[in-house]
Amino acid sequence: MRMKRVKRTALLCASVSAFAVPGVAFAQAGAENPNADIIVTATRREERLQDVPMSVNVATGEQLEKFKIFDVKDVSQLAPGLQLTNTTGRNNTTTLRGITFDPDQGTGPAVQTYYNEIPTDAQTIFTAIYDIQQIEVLRGPQGLLRGLSAPAGSITIATRKPNFDGPEGYLQATGTDRHAYNVQGGASLAFNDTLAIRVAGVVDGNRVNQVRNVNTDQYSRSRTESGRITLGWKPSTDFTAYLTYQYLHADNRVFQQVVGSGNTPLGQYETLFGTPIVLLPAAFGGRPFTPDTTVRSGPPLSVSDRGSVQEGIFRNQNETHLVNLQFDYDLGPATLSFVGAHQYSKLKISRDLDSANAIPGYIQTSNVTTPYKVDTAELRLSSNNDEGLGWGVSAFHSKQTGTTFVDQDSSLFLYNVAPTAQVNPPCALAGCSPPNSIAPFTFPNQLPLRALVTVPVNSQVWSFAGNLRYKTGPLTVQGGLRYSILKKVQTTQQQLVGFFNTPDVEIIPAALQRTKNTPITGGATINYEVTPDLNVYAAYGHSFRQGSSKVAGPAVVSADLIQTQPEKTDSVEAGLKGSLFDRKLNYSVAAYYQKLDGFLSRFNSIYWESPSNPGQPNGTFDFNYNGDATIKGIEASINARPTPNWDLNVSAAYTKARWDNASLPCNDYAGTGTPNTTGPQNVTGPGNVSYCTSSDKLANTPDFSLNANTEVRFPMDTVTPFVSALLTYTPSYYWWQSQYRFKHRELVNLFVGVRSNDDKWELSAFAKNVLNQKRITNISLGEVQTNAVVAGSFQSGYSTVNVTNPREIGATLTFNW
């Protein structure tokens, strides 16, 4: 009988939620020399962008300041096929070439991020962007050039370094009509020809998603402060070293937006002959409880309302200390280079998991604290010759340790009535007999229970790489291999405290706690300079990602739901980069094909059942899972300067990233073979979860995207007025996991201003999302609901959504010296 499973359900269900366009550069801020070469370090060497045999996006710090990009996610407005999102205020997610990544997976990211050439998590380096020298986006599998492998690409962020030649810097202040402000700056001071220092900082505040909580009349808000000090030492022309320390403190309070009519989710508790009416057969008067119309989950809310109904908070805090050391020593025939870093971060998350207020009067509080440290070092030796045979060798090591602590309210509700209502419990819980009957006395409907979870983190990477490069005349061929040793120990201890207590239980089977992989990754490229203004290239890349074990959740599920298998990917790419009309027009085209064996993905809020109790509601959890996939696409761009005072850039990408007939966890309550939440929660098939066979998209992104930007300048005697615009277009598309068709989006940003001809100051006004489009960018599958243990469910009447920010008007004043 259903009542017998109450304690087991509590034990098992205490869940824990634990660019320039390719090949060219963006429009410049002024009338710079259109013939100037763009220099990048994508291959760990300084090369002309046109000579790099891969798709690379480049954005300088001046361009970020020009387009008022204070949030890294806005960089995606400048590069097609790149999507940077944060759907909850805590999980920065990067999608590139149709490959996405959820930070909660516990695996390496699909797009690896590097801060001054050191791998650093996106949660840290995406939080504060200021005083940037250059951002480069490398597209395609990365398994050779840097220490960690990634299937979709890498993003490298280089901060500005001290200037040994003299004092220089900038100060920029911005304010908007949406209660946002950003003040940032940086300054260099040279003590002498060999020693210099640079100090930079930012203070930023905004209303994040512009969502208002209808219960408290408060808005989402974000506050970020960060400072950076870089010491440069150059005792000779052969040796240069930089030591950087950065401090970051971010405090975000983000309310989850919902849309829907709302509901009266609480029933009025009723019995007949001492038995709750929901447990009686219809022939004997059985029926659902009568709704309590005096209590609602919230009012009707549309997309335009930008409303949240959470009764609790969602607060994310990040405090990070980061020390980075770089040096290059030119030995003549070769250069010895070192990069090393120490990072200590402490993340605190406090949130109400009942984000749609499915149970009014109840705040499902989850407190998560994650202190961790990462130590990284890489030593490289590479030849200096440009012609003939070149070579390079490197050794890389990274170790991450820390422990995550979770304290989460996992209370159980016997029926879908008020938490404080007095109800008749099952005898199996109350200790009366017979066990399969209903007790003649009452309990509070809410059975208080807390899940205490401890998740130690211990992972280590050693890798060794070697590469060769041969250049003769217009032909350059290069390739190499990287051998890695990946070790990881994953354990999770879970304890329940409340209406009954349990000791700490290890939920990861012993056989799955330790993993070790020794993959070989790498790649090869060939580049041919047809003319000084046209290069053609071909590239092959192979990458590897280690699988992971779940950090919390049900213990009695199959091993494939506990631990994922490693992922391997192979990719081929061909392209050309060129220029016309004395480099007044630059262009690039790249086509690629990629095959992923066991692509690692995450599937959220999947309903599962215990094999010892089939057909009964046991809970919903987030599961990692593998599936094969294929990707093919094409990218193209044009970067033009028709006149000395007019820049025009257009780029587009088409990527078809699809599962390859993969069997994946899903919610299939109706047994249709496709994701749905129709009817009572149920598992279709013999497993712990339902599985849907899919050949649909890998990520919640459109196949096609287009970006364009332009600037027109009107030079005068001492100043130059200008007008610029930025357009991002995405067509309508269907996302199978939400069973929802997203509308097309045309994001238009306009800028107008004036700058001095000596580039000492600039005053500009801007309007973002000029069309004031209100487009859903992410939505839950069906309305949010919570099941009661014995009978009934709490129906919120809402779906959770993310929506494009409204029109925002602001002004910026910048001083340079």
In words, what does this structure look like?
With 817 residues, this protein is mainly β. The chain has five helices and 54 strands. The strands form 13 sheets. It has a 22-stranded antiparallel beta barrel. The protein has a five-stranded mixed sheet with strand order 3-8-9-6-7.
CATH level-two architecture: Beta Barrel
Largest sheet: 22 strands, antiparallel, barrel
* Number of discrete helical segments: 5
Mean of pLDDT: 90
Overall body shape: globular
Report the strand count.
Answer: 54
Task: Name the poorly predicted regions.
Answer: 1-35, 613-617
Find the CATH superfamily. TonB-dependent receptor, beta-barrel domain
Q: Rg to the nearest angstrom?
A: 28 Å
Straight-line distance between termini: 77 Å
CATH class: Mainly Beta
Indicate the proportion of strand residues: over 45%
Helix proportion of residues, in percent? under 10%
Task: Tally the structural domains.
Answer: 1
Strand-helix topology:
Blueprint: H1 6-13, E1 39-40, E2 47-48, E3 56-60, H2 61-66, E4 82-86, E5 92-96, E6 111-115, E7 118-119, H3 122-125, E8 132-139, E9 153-159, E10 168-176, E11 181-190, E12 195-206, E13 212-213, E14 218-219, E15 221-236, E16 239-253, E17 257-260, E18 267-268, E19 271-272, E20 275-276, E21 290-291, E22 307-308, E23 314-330, E24 334-352, E25 365-383, E26 388-409, E27 412-413, E28 422-423, H4 427-430, E29 443-444, E30 446-447, E31 449-472, E32 475-490, E33 493-498, E34 505-506, E35 514-517, E36 520-531, E37 534-545, H5 559-562, E38 567-580, E39 585-608, E40 619-643, E41 646-659, E42 662-666, E43 690-694, E44 704-713, E45 719-730, E46 733-735, E47 740-742, E48 745-756, E49 761-768, E50 776-779, E51 785-787, E52 793-795, E53 798-803, E54 808-816
Parallel strand pairs: 6-9, 13-22
Antiparallel strand pairs: 1-2, 3-8, 4-5, 6-7, 8-9, 10-11, 10-54, 11-12, 12-15, 13-14, 15-16, 16-23, 17-53, 18-21, 19-20, 23-24, 24-25, 25-26, 26-31, 27-30, 28-29, 31-32, 31-33, 32-35, 32-36, 33-34, 36-37, 37-38, 38-39, 39-40, 40-41, 41-44, 42-43, 44-45, 45-48, 46-47, 48-49, 49-54, 50-53, 51-52
